[in-house]
Prior knowledge:
The structure holds two protein chains of two kinds. By secondary structure, chain A is mostly beta strands. Helices cover 6% and strands 52% of the residues of chain A. In chain A, the strands form 13 sheets. Chain A has a 22-stranded antiparallel β-barrel. In chain A, strands 7, 8, 10, 11, 13 and 14 form a six-stranded mixed sheet that branches. Chain A has a five-stranded mixed sheet with strand order 17-24-25-20-21. In chain A, a hairpin with a 3-residue loop joins strand 27 and strand 28. Chain A is globular. Chain A starts with a strand and ends with a strand. By secondary structure, chain B is mainly beta. Helices cover 11% and strands 40% of the residues of chain B. Chain B contains four helices and 23 strands. Chain B has a 15-stranded mixed sheet that branches. In chain B, strand 11 and strand 12 form a beta hairpin. At the A-B interface, strand 52, strand 53, strand 57 and strand 58 of A face helix 1, strand 1, strand 18 and helix 2 of B. Strand 58 (901-907) of chain A pairs antiparallel with strand 1 (23-26) of chain B, so a sheet runs across the interface.
Amino acid sequence: MFRCCTNLFAILFFCGVSYAQIKTTTFSIEAQGETKEQLLNKIEASTGFKFYYLAEWLDNTPIYKSYGNSTIQSILEDILADTNLHFIEYGNGKVYLTQGRLIHDYLPDNFFPAIKEVASEDYVANEASSISVVLDNQKAPERRRRKTIRIGKQNVGATNSEFTISGYVKNELSGSPLPNVVVSTDKNKNTLTNNQGYYSLELPYGQNIIFTDALGLERMEQPVVVYNDGVLDITLKESVEQLDEVIISANSRQVIDGTTTGKNTIESEESKTIPVVLGERDLLKIATTLPGITTAGEGSAGFNVRGGKTDQNLILLDNSVLYNSSHFFGIFQALNPYTVKSIDIYKGNIPAEFGGRLSSVFNINTIDGNTEKISGEASIGPVTGNLKLEIPVVKDKAALMVAGRGTYSDWILGALDNEDLQGRSAFFYDLIAKYQHELNTKNNVEAMAYYSKDAFSITQDSLYAYENKLISMQWNHKLNEKHQGSLKLSRSDYFFEIDYDGRPQIDFNYNFNIKETQLKLKMRYAANTNHSFTYGISSKLYELSPGTIDGKSDLSQIEEFSLSEEKGLESAIFIADNIKVSEKLQLDLGLRYSIFNAIGPSEQRIYAENQPRNETSLLETQSFDSGDLFKTYSFPEVRVGARYYIKPDFSAKASYSSSTQYIHSLSNNTTVSPIDTWKLSDINIEPQRASLFSAGLYKFFGDNTYETSIEGFYKTQNNILDFKVGAQLLLNEVIEQETLQGKGKSYGVEFLLKKNRGALTGWLGYTYSRSFFQLRSDFPEEQVSNGEFFPANFDKPHDISLVSNYNITKRLSFSTNFTYQTGRPVTFPTGTFFFNGEQQVLYSQRNKFRIPNYYRLDIGFNLEGNHKKKKLAHSFWSFSIYNVLGRNNPYSVFFVTQDGEVKAFQSSVFNIPVPSLTYNLKF
Amino acid sequence: MFRIKKKIFFAITLFLIVVSGCVEPFEISPQTFDDVLIVEATLTNEEKTQVISLSRTGILGSTEPIWEEGADVIIIQDSNSTLRFLETQPGIYESESEFAALPTSSYQLSITTRDGDSYTSSQENLPSSAVIDDVIARKITNDDGIEGIEIFVNSFDATGQSKFYRYSYEETYKIIAPLWNQFEAFVVSENPPSVDIRLRPQEELICYGNNASSTSILFSTTTLNEDRVSELPIRFIEKSDFIIANRYSILVKQIVQTEQAFQFYEKLRELSSQGNLLSQSQPGFLIGNVFPDQETSKSVTGYFDVSSVSTKRLFFNFEDFFEDDQPSYIVNCESISIPDLEQDQFGNSALILAIQNETLEYFNDNVDLTGNTPPGEGPFQMVPRICGDCTTIGSNEIPEFWIE
């Protein structure tokens, strides 16, 4: 549509000055009756500037004028003075002419105002603030003008000068609401749609034109005649071919604009092209390719974020805590990839509304169902099958999304010709349903239910199972244009059990259960252009059944035994103010005050002070009745951040965050184990606390094609829970005699380079970080490594991730994923001795040695079906090879004394290339 | 409960083998070495010479203990009286006089090594005692499908105080030399070579073999509904094992430990045998109840355990359980040789050498039907010594406790 008036010679000739600015380059030209177009051609020919415009914009009036040694800018201003054309220089001497609309060469501060900081949250645009619209004209689709619509009945006596027009912006195809669409008018009114796609504008009486602008969507122009308040719903088409890129670039802007350090967002779309293991897309695994987030290795559940332990992450699925976020011990994620819209990961300054875990928040949002028509997705992979359906319930108002995923992995076991595996099975499945209903413009409700189950009986005599049950409900209510809130009720229930069928005398069932129920009220108040408040209150009730064992038959000698139930109430009030101090400086001041009440009934053992905790130092056992608040802890938690624009595409940020955690996982393993239990703080086990300082620099370059950031952090932790050597945690009534609480410190620098556009996209992340713990005491039996700092189990100084995707054609893409990590620390034997008639192993101080470095390369191909518009279903194939180098990455190292000799073994999970082929179908 | 956890890990282990099939041994390169004093001391309520052993850690791969010699070892009773220990063998310290730990006293171990480092244990008291009710032998087929005799122990503490049990055993079995003869060969003269037979001066037909358990079995009743040890397997003997060919006896020793001592033994075992793929439990330096007195002293680990002991003995014969033939002897005794008496080219007589070196035993005269030694052959049929003389593998003294 644009004619590119390029003169090759001129470019070559002037390439030396191709960075010249229109403001600085001077030029002399004599116009002797040339048209505007001819003049522009002349300038192009002589200066190397290129002009982009539509020829029909320029009239053929002859120009007679002499420009002596003027800047290009002043010449253009003069030539175009009698037109409605604006111009802008963008890039190397490229000058774009635009009709009617002024183009800015930078994104205004509030172009994506705080949207992503509250991603998934109900967002109201500060309608008072002016939102300028900037679009890259090379990419933006043509604006589609629609027929004029009359709004409201004409009221002759109307005295209002302005009327409220509101409505929903939706995807024409899927009917799903479109958030963050800029809705503007020719009268310079602007707003953004919120998460439900809702917008509201005050329009003057009479003729107005409403524009919509959003990256990745068609641009629409809707003339309206406003007579009164009224409703205008808008449907928009996607500009499909740009969707993937747009998602990333829309997100990436937050990196610069937000006041939050250490925040990443993973969109479901992004994960499509990343090579996977056994055909399963895994958003959480993608998280581990980001700087600062690691796992202990393949097949290990749990994340270590910036030197934090695996129990310090708050993993929320639509506000409900997901206690076990993996299937098959971490080989698969527990999230159905079709149902996840995005994951926001906060590893730096955690917003004040979240709390209760020290290191990070993984806020996972599920998709909203399609309210227009039935649609769905399905896939068939080597291990799992997956189906998602979206069903409209009330057209344009309500929809139900249901999805299920399950394994048919039994055949894998069957296929392996191994006698040991006969009669054994292993499976998992997860189900999710979500209903969202928009009651009216002020109210909408959502409800989500999730269930996941893992079970296997690998040995003939044991069955092991765990399940997550989550329910969440949310009511979003808008008090007025500036003030809105949401009330969220969520419940999470995690359960695991072991059924052992050996000899009848020792058959048993052992199980653990934790339930938590939370009610949270969160309000957002956009006071004015400079202040936007978030405040609220939340309260969460924990109910733990920390362990029960019972014999299974009458013959059993196993006594029914239960650790007594634990209860606790964790409450918090929070307030945060996002302050725009100046165009360049933005502050986010947040404060959270959390209170934990340990609730009876409970038996609490009191130990003599200044003595090691054991049976000898036990002074008394205090009994508390049901409902007694026998111990209360409370802490203020500060969450502050600041962002400063050094340049429009270059910002600096710093933040400080402190947090408290009242629930602890009891794990004496070097990695997360599915039978780890949880424990609430009580008289003997104090809450864990952490402080994190982080600061970084964030820059875009190359027309926002590249995004780069460098962020450093320093974190200290207190009362980190650890255990004595050989601690017995299972069904231990006096667990406090086995626990140690100590300090942690970690620091690091994280570097990320991301390419967001073009045929090649992806990112390179590098992290240098260290993480240490210290368990110091006056008593040798309560010390580890002589009370010195020792490296954490997950201390991996160097961590490199390279994720890339190359679009070979529109349908075929090739992707790679490379990871390198320093081997994690382990405790090695250093000697042997004889005791109790056996040779025993003497171990080094904790984590003195490291296992070999870890590296892995995965590759994948994605082949999309054809892009015919009128097609029943859209399909794509993905083929991937996990660990294509076949690197035998040791996952764990262990030592066995056999025949009087200490033998060392290393195990690895996937030591050979694992290919998989998955067929995906979208309809 | 460790047992439960092990099962779980076993399950996980198998699962991951399915997924990956990869566990491989690797060489541990010599790492830094920590020189640590190891204390193993069990004071019991038996009236006897009490024994304490001291050793040091060795480098990985060493197979013999490195004994700690020349240390001063005492036990302080009730913070006032001292019980001295003397080194009788390298690293083995025995009490000067016989004594039994008393339930009313407290005991503390104090050690000063040759280097001058001193160590003291925490104060320990004798736990309650529980008497073994029964030791039972029963014919079973074990999990590997092997038939044999399993020895079980039963115990019950009505007071519910004992709870933490450690078991060891000592077994004694009758040995009958299969090719025994009442006569033995002796050398009359080397040159000219001449031999004869005479009555054996000592018992060499029936002996008594002896084995002690190399390690002990740990069992806790804390998860059971009473403090009862019910048919806990102590020892399995395969049906074909020659030790039960005749009469067999086992003495089971039940040691009631304190909870802390039990946990130390259990943790030690866990650390030495830990092995699972998915979740390695955190290993480390295990601290017992003996501590250095000075900060500069070398590290120490081990346990000063004061325990109450109960023993019970069981006898049985092979025929009590099996009707088939007895298990064969420890070695194959089918080969009978006839060494030459005549000197060979080097002047050696094979028969005389065998008698002098006690490698072969007299079995019979080498005579043909006429009663004469066939020409060119030696005079005696000889058998390997172990087949004709049981003292090679046992003691010919009837143990005091032995009951036929």
